[in-house]
Amino acid sequence: MSINPAWYLSLSIVLFAIGALGVLVRRNVLIMFMCVELMLNASNLAFVTFARTLHDIGGQVLVFFVLVVAAAEVVVGLGIVVAIFRRRANADADDLHLMKG
Amino acid sequence: MNSLLAASTAPIIHVPHVDYLSILPMLIMLGGALGLMLASSLLRKVMDVRAGTIVAASVSVAALVAALFQWHHVTTHGPSVTIAGAIAFDGFDVFIQVVVSIAMLLTALVGDGYLRREGIDGPEYQVLAMASASGAMMMGAANDLIVVFLGLEILSIALYVLAAINHRRAESGEAALKYFVLGGFSSAIFLYGIALTYGATGTTNLPQIADYLSRNVITQNGVLLAGLALLLVGFGFKVAAVPFHMWSPDVYEGSPSPVAGFMAAVAKAGAFAALLRIFVTSFPTVQADWRPVVWVLAILSLAFGAVVALTQRDVKRMMAYSSINHVGFILLGVEACTARGVSASLYYLFTYMFLVIGTFAVITVVAGDGDSHTKITDFRGLAKRQPVLAMSFAVLLLGQAGAPFTTGFLAKLGVIEASVAHHGYVLAVVAMASAAVAAFFYLRLAITMFSPVGDTGDTGDTGYADGGGAVVGTSRGSEVDLATSSTKGNLPANIQVLTDAAPEADVEARGVVPVPALTTAAIAICVAFTLVFGIFPAPILNFAHEATLLLLG
After folding, report:
1. CA separation for the pair B482, B471 (Å, rounded)
2. DSSP state, B80?
3. Contacts of A56 in chain B (CB under 8 A)
4. What are residue B81's DSSP bridge partners?
5. Does residue A92 sit in helix, strand or coil?
6. Which of B313, B353, B528, B537 maximizes the CB count within 10 A of its CB?
7. Do the chains contact at B188 and A101, CB–CB below 8 Å?
8. What percent of chain B has pLDDT over 70?
């Protein structure tokens, strides 16, 4: 069975769009993080798809770099969330309104 | 044994040649960060702030010296690529290394006084700042889109934590979270842009992309254009160009003041370095597609930054909008897409680095305990209390406004000239108009410092000062009760009178703010640079010019 790579690319675009929409629409900070991760993984899928169609190993190697970066980002992000929401009841982005201008 | 033999007969793995000089400043910076972190974890007690500062400052100076050796090498041997083409070793790269090393040195000096005042122990501030600086250096040297991405992430992830470094201030954490969510969002957009560019051109190496685009005419270039658009959106977020700027006022206001200066100087230097290299050297063949977009970003940033800064009452927010305005100016050089534009942008980045770090150093000092006094009214009467500090601040503000005999003047002139040389008359006119509007709010802040403490005629703080003035102007019998009942009532009445009814009394009660010696040194360096090279601009202009001539590609 063979699948047209365009389908993989379409899936990656859909995942990216879901992720981007999630960051913009959802108000829970943890879900916003997950949506950013979804966007990064959509990029990974695009990299692998292009690497297969171009017969180039480079694109697949890039995925490893992205995975490492994503892991580092989550560590830092969760650290910041824990630091902030230790004194709060929920992780709602709408509650972050100390600064206005 | 057999397996060993098998391994020895296997084909030899060729490791790419590494020219260590090309990445030496980066290695020094990152090594300094890791070494400092390791040393502090081996100590029995919490490391002294001063020790961290000394290490960070020496590491920055070492990186600067290494960058000067690099400059010598590049000017004698010409530009080259190394590590399998992933790192460019050219004048442009060295220029960014110099800018970032100096910015790191100044930030280390300013941070020392801040950390002691706020009682933040340990070397984390310096460690994170050095790690972040190494990321910015990597972005300047990156010759491959994925190296740009790695540099961007090293720069950003350390900055997210730096924004939250003052954990006693709730605003600091909030700023970090906002910065993190929008930073992660923009990184993901940027990464998808890389993926699409890779799909369209078959490589992520910048010279190979340029090569591919010059030899092939892509008829159905939807993937490439989408990739370019996403790259631009990602950069737009990172440099805070309108309409991708909304995080920056909150983040600048909430972050510790020295960190805000570092963000404005180093994050912009790194992001603009990558933006210039990618778009001017790799995508000149499709410039008809991306230049109009940069044109719009530039116009919006110029106009919006200057106009909204007028309405701000918080100096840090005002500086955030002012930096958006500066981004518009630097984008002028990108939009020109010529050697002249690149050189003007580099010069702008170099001079703006001194101006913004110096400005935030003064704000750090004036803000006082808890980084809390950052209203424009807090600067009233500063000239009377601390004339030298006020004069330095005035020079830095005039530099940002682009007054003649400061570096800011030639920076603005350079990018506008580059734009006019390319017939970008509309951009040039908008830039000049926005410079005039921007001069107004810089001067307003400067005049506030020089106006006497009791004067309420200033335009900058109408609501606040008028309310206070009314109470002061009348006899204080019944008015005091009015003031106490209308505000939080659980404090003693006499404190209410002091803090609420009369902002002038509040300002006077703060008195002279202490200026730590190292912060004084940093401010002095910034002011001296702004004035000396504003009057004798040739060395820095030549540096930027030669760096552009030695640009690879």
Report:
1. 10
2. E
3. 202-203
4. B88
5. strand
6. B353
7. no
8. 87
**B328: confidence class by pLDDT, cuts 50, 70, 90:** very high
pLDDT of residue B455: 52
Tokens standing for residue B224: 């490439």
Tokens read off for B465: 């000062």
Domain ranges of chain A: 5-95
Above 90 in pLDDT, residue B25?
yes
pLDDT for the residue numbered B470: 38
Give the pLDDT band of residue B192 (cuts 50, 70, 90). Answer: very high
B103 contacts B353 by C-beta, under 8 angstroms: yes
Say whether residue B541 is in contact with chain A using an 8 A CB cutoff: no
DSSP label at residue B375: B
Whether the per-residue pLDDT at A11 is higher than 80: the answer is yes
> What residue segments make up the domains of chain B, in order of their start?
20-451+514-549, 462-510
Question: Which residue of chain A comes nearest to B153, CA vs CA?
Answer: A69
- Give the residue among B417, B136, B395 at the shortest CA–CA distance from B272: B136
Q: Count CB neighbours of B458 within 10 A.
A: 15
In words, the CATH class of domain A5-95 is: mainly alpha
d(CA A24, CA A29): 11
ipTM at complex level: 0.93
| Nearest CA-CA distance, residue B165 and chain A, Å | 10
Query: Chain B within 8 Å of A69 (Cβ-Cβ)?
Result: yes
Cα separation of B129 and B133, whole Å? 6
Which residues, numbered 236 to 275 in chain B, qualify as contacts with chain A under a Cβ-Cβ cut-off of 8 Å? Answer: 249-250, 253-254
**% helix, strand, coil for chain A, step of 5:** 75, 0, 20
Measure CB to CB from residue A98 to each of B174, B188, B312 and give the nearest one.
B174
The per-residue pLDDT for A96 is 73
Helix B247-254 and helix B170-201, axial crossing angle in degrees, nearest 10: 140
Where b means 16+ CB within 10 Å and e means fewer, B464-477 reads: ebebbbebbeeeee
Tell me the CB-side half-sphere exposure of residue B314, using CA atoms within 13 A.
19
Q: Which of B145, B167, B187 to mutate to test the interface with A (most CBs of A within 10 A)?
A: B187
- The pair phi, psi for residue B205, each rounded to 5°, is -80, 130
Output the pLDDT for position B461.
Answer: 42
**Candidate from B218-232, B325-339, B447-461, B489-503 with smallest mean pLDDT:** B489-503
Identity of residue B433:
A
What is the distance between the alpha carbons of residues B231 and B140, in angstroms, rounded to a whole number? 16
User: If 0-12 CB within 10 Å is exposed, 13-18 middle and 19+ buried, where does residue B260 land?
Assistant: buried
Contact flag A96-B253 (C-beta cutoff 8 Å): no
Name the pLDDT band for B388 (thresholds 50, 70, 90).
very high
Contact A39 B149 (CB under 8 A): no
Q: What is the mean pLDDT of the segment spanning B326-332?
A: 96
Judged by average pLDDT, the poorest of B130-134, B172-176, B249-253, B518-522 is B172-176
Among the partner residues A50, A56, A83, nearest to B195 by beta-carbon distance: A50
Distance of alpha carbon B520 from the chain centroid:
20
Residue with tokens 């690879």: B552
| Chain B hits for A93, Cβ within 8 Å | 177, 181
Share of chain B above pLDDT 90, in %: 71
Q: B13 or B392: whose pLDDT is higher?
A: B392
Of A33, A47, A81, the CB nearest to B198: A47
